[in-house]
Amino acid sequence: MFNNNPPFPPATELRNERVRFQRLSAGYPGRPVLHQLSAAIPPLAMTALVGPNGSGKSTLLGVLAGVITATSGQLRYAEGSPPAFVPQRGAVGDTLPLTARQTVEMGRWGQRGLWRRLTRTDRTAVDSAMERLGVADLGARQLGELSGGQRQRVLIAQGLAQQSDLLLLDEPTTGLDPEARERITALLTDLVADGTTVVQATHDLDAARSADACLLLADGRLIGQGSPEEVLTPEALARIWQPA
Ligand code: ADP
């Protein structure tokens, strides 16, 4: 899962960067998507990955999470735990016969292995992640029965249960009502304050504007990086979102 390939220099060389990538290209068989991206993810901060549908946000998160292998370029991580990845809600089968608690417990499989019993430490990590997301009382419910906002909180709890200091989320607030959105945004802000580095792909410009750093993607290319004020200018937004 953890993509820290030996050709890259040792992790400790990164200063004030949790992840750095250089000339990173990636995609799917016969379908190049990301082209020569170079950027850094600041530590202990919220980075928003912004761009239209199909611009490559999920693919970049997949590469950072280690589930998609880059075809070229460099990817380096500062010292810390392997990233925890919360995929898009739609990518997780709603019909899987899993309870909310079992879903969160899957976050511990990386530590424990698929067929080993969960230890007390695992159960404590699961309990505290569920408490933190306000889903402790939903533990016995089937995932498919939950509302979109509840399901999203369960998935974030699964990420949190991994107890990583690097949390990657794919559109955690998309499709939710404003209250659920605000709740998740506030939670992510708290996680950063508590020492987590958060990267979220988002369509929500309010969430992006409140992030510490922004990466703007269009057509698999990085067309802006820096503070939200620097990156999310009216000109840049018009360029990527207005019909041609
Ligand atoms: P975003 O998250 O910004 O919507 P994605 O990274 O999901 O963008 O997609 C970027 C491009 O990669 C799109 O053109 C999409 O169709 C393509 N793509 C995404 N997943 C796959 C896949 N599993 N196989 C082939 N192409 C894919």
From TrEMBL:
Family to which this protein belongs: Belongs to the ABC transporter superfamily.
Domain of life: Bacteria
Pfam families in alphabetical order: ABC_tran (PF00005)
MF-aspect GO terms: ATP binding
NCBIfam families, A to Z: AztA
Entry keyword set: ATP-binding, Nucleotide-binding, Transport
Protein name: Zinc ABC transporter ATP-binding protein AztA
Residue intervals of the ABC transporter domain: 19-244
Designated gene of the protein: aztA
Organism: Streptomyces filamentosus (Streptomyces roseosporus)
